[in-house]
TrEMBL record, chain A:
The species this protein was found in: Streptomyces montanisoli
Protein name: ABC transporter ATP-binding protein
CDD domains registered for this protein in UniProt: ABC_NrtD_SsuB_transporters (cd03293)
Domain ABC transporter residues, every copy: 19-242
GO MF entries: ATP binding; ATP hydrolysis activity
Coiled-coil residues: none
Entry keywords, A to Z: ATP-binding, Nucleotide-binding, Transport
InterPro entries: AAA+_ATPase (IPR003593), ABC_transporter-like_ATP-bd (IPR003439), ABC_transporter-like_CS (IPR017871), ABC_transporter_ATP-bind (IPR050166), P-loop_NTPase (IPR027417)
From TrEMBL, chain B:
Keywords: Cell membrane, Membrane, Transmembrane, Transmembrane helix, Transport
Key word Transmembrane helix present: yes
PANTHER family tied to this protein: ALKANE SULFONATE ABC TRANSPORTER-RELATED, MEMBRANE SUBUNIT, TRANSPORT SYSTEM INTEGRAL MEMBRANE PROTEIN
GO cellular component: plasma membrane
Annotated protein name in UniProt: ABC transporter permease
Residue intervals of the ABC transmembrane type-1 domain: 110-294
Organism annotation: Streptomyces montanisoli
Transmembrane parts of this sequence: 59-81, 117-136, 148-168, 174-195, 275-295
Membrane topology label: Multi-pass membrane protein
Principal subcellular localisation of the protein: membrane
Location within or outside the cell: Cell membrane
A Pfam family the protein falls into: BPD_transp_1
Disordered: annotated segments: 1-21
Compositional bias segments (type: Low complexity): 1-15
Length: 262, 312
């Protein structure tokens, strides 16, 4: 299936990175003075690369994605991306005054897709996330999992070369999540989109990524990185996936334990 | 992992023969069916309420209440609790209605006031909306006139009638000025509070989609603020109508035409209590009708389409 994401490659010359996060720190003003959330993060996402970002709850994953998406400014360091990235929020963030289809069409419209093409494109994207019949449904009429899939379709409608995803499948049941893992892997392989995918599910991280990055907590730093050489298509229950997951989980436990000590 | 077994076995069985596409496709189809089942379970259809039960639950109660009031009123008149010049009977008031109907003046009274009220309200809408938007989004403007705007809301618009008469004279402009001074603050304040209640997530989502500046205002901010804005409009209409009636009662003049306010004032000067009652009822009915026929359905539709109101 031809995807709109494929087109972008021909138009723009390939950069040497899809996202460059360069010595980025972020602190917030809290009750006890400034609280450092992200500390000196340096991370590149290569064009076409699939990177998952792992970390305990509250370690600053969403904050980092917000910075990469340009929604907030880093306190120190710099971030460069080629063009505006698409961001799929941790909450579905669909607009309740629009139907599922119109949510997607709004993204298309803001991207500059001419009106006659929008409807067909929106239906194609809904088909892609297996929600063919949901075009006219209001957001509140959809189940949590369906909302998440519409949000994915809307993010894809942006046709960005970099797709940021913040725990997009955390609320889904295992069966649906499996399908969307397959779907996402397929979309990623067929196009040249780069994906930075946040999760706290170690197996999910290994199932999807070429590279897994582990963030430490308070402040968030890059603690460890793994290349995942297991050939795609993988399944979450594959032996190799499980083996690497055990190793990463061990490390993640260590990070969390280290915290209990001071 | 138990939950993935259904797909897992199927996909595993195919592993040997099928290529990647076959495997993904087959497992996908299988799961698509499963998912359709799940989705069907998770979303409920809403059945239409039959007409009969609508009549019983929505029309019957208010009709009963009105009939009850009429009965009590008639009883009070029959008991002579007050002299007839103070308390006319429902029959007298009805006589007043049929008289005005026969003379063809009834709709004239109503239309004079309603057309003024609606025109004034539309004007207030055109002024109040951009004003509210600017106050909501531009910090210095908000600091400067935000408090004044909310203060104006609590100032009874009758207070504006004397200065308006002095500045503009006894004419339609003066009526519109009073309506505007009553309704513009309500509409602007409604929009401001609507905008303030927009979840930041929507604005952030809009920005990632590229809706910034005016496009952000049009596609994200305004629709997101619509419920608060509508509440402001509703209140704005109530204030328009009230201000207009105050203006019509106080500032009656032959060349202004007879609206409901003047009808009320004429009733008083002619000592015709049934005319006063007629005017009061008409004022009340117009206020209720506009709300019932226009604002309530609009508000219900907006809230329902966003899943903010339960179907009743
Ligand atoms: N706007 C803000 N103001 C103050 N503190 C903030 C703000 N946003 C985030 N934080 C703090 O930054 C830390 C990281 O938050 P963030 O949402 O990035 O975590 P996370 O890794 O995404 O967690 P989770 O896995 O639970 O989603 C938290 O301690 C949070 O309290
Ligand atoms: Mg988060």
């Amino acid at each position: 299936m031809a995807s709109p994401l494929a087109k972008a490659a021909d138009e723009t010359p390939a950069a040497d990175h899809a996202a460059r996060i360069d010595h980025v720190s972020k602190s917030f003003a809290g009750p006890a003075g400034r609280q450092l959330v992200l500390d000196d993060i340096t991370l590149d996402v290569a064009p076409g690369e699939f990177v998952t970002l792992l970390g305990a709850s509250g370690c600053g994953k969403s904050t980092l994605l917000g910075l990469v998406a340009g929604l907030d400014e880093p306190t120190a360091g710099s971030i460069s991306t080629g063009g505006r990235p698409a961001l799929m929020f941790q909450e579905h963030a669909l607009f309740p005054w629009l139907t599922a289809g119109k949510n997607i069409e709004l993204a298309l419209r803001l991207r500059g897709v001419p009106r006659p093409e929008r409807r067909g494109e929106a239906e194609r994207l809904l088909e892609l996330v297996r929600l063919g019949g949901a075009y006219g449904k209001r957001v509140h009429e959809l189940s949590g999992g369906m909302r998440q899939r519409v949000a994915l379709a809307r993010a894809l409608a942006q046709d960005s070369r970099l797709l940021l995803m913040d725990e997009p499948f955390a609320a889904l049941d295992a069966i649906t999540r499996d399908v969307l893992h397959d779907e996402l892997t397929r979309i990623w392989r067929e196009t040249d989109v780069s994906i930075l995918f946040v999760t706290h599910n170690v197996r999910e991280a290994v199932r999807l990524a070429e590279r897994v990055v582990l963030l430490s907590s308070r402040p968030g730093r890059v603690a460890h990185e793994w290349r995942v050489d297991i050939p795609q298509p993988r399944r979450i229950e594959d032996h190799d996936v499980a083996a690497l997951s055990v190793e990463i989980t061990e490390q993640l436990r260590g990070e969390i334990r280290r915290h209990g000590q001071h | 992992m138990a939950s993935t077994d259904t797909t897992g076995t199927k996909a595993a069985a195919q592993d040997g023969q099928g290529g990647t596409a076959g495997r993904a496709g087959q497992a996908g189809l299988d799961v698509a069916g499963l998912e359709a089942g799940l989705d069907a379970l998770e979303t409920t259809g809403s059945a239409r309420v039959p007409l009969r039960s609508t009549l019983v639950s929505k029309v019957l109660p208010p009709v009963t209440a009105v009939v009850l009031v009429l009965v009590v009123w008639e009883v009070l008149v029959l008991c002579h609790v007050a002299p007839a010049y103070k308390l006319p009977s429902p029959g007298d008031v009805w006589g007043e209605v049929t008289d005005a109907w026969m003379q063809g003046t009834l709709f004239g009274y109503i239309w004079t006031s309603v057309s003024r009220g609606l025109l004034g309200f539309l004007l207030a809408l055109v002024i109040g909306t951009p004003l509210g938007l600017v106050v909501a989004r531009v910090k210095p403007v908000r600091a400067a006139i935000g408090p004044i705007l909310s203060g104006l809301q609590s100032l009874p618009s009758v207070a504006w009638v004397p200065p308006a008469v002095i500045w503009l004279g006894l004419n339609d402009q003066m009526m519109f000025a009073v309506i505007l001074l009553g309704a513009v603050p309500s509409i602007a304040n409604g929009l401001v509070s609507g905008v303030d209640q927009v979840p930041p997530l929507f604005l952030r989502a809009g920005r990632t989609l590229g809706a910034t500046g005016l496009r952000g205002t049009w596609h994200i901010l305004l629709p997101a603020a619509l419920p608060g804005y509508l509440a402001g409009l509703k209140q704005g209409w109530a204030f328009s109508w009230r201000s207009l009636m105050a203006a019509e009662i106080i500032a009656s003049s032959p060349d202004l035409g007879i609206g409901l306010g003047q009808l009320l004032e004429n009733g008083r000067t002619n000592s015709s209590m049934s005319m006063v009652f007629l005017a009061i009822f008409l004022i009340l009915i117009v206020g209720i009708a506009v709300d019932l026929l226009f604002f309530s359905p609009l508000e219900r539709w907006v809230l329902r389409s966003r899943g903010l109101a339960a179907r009743r």
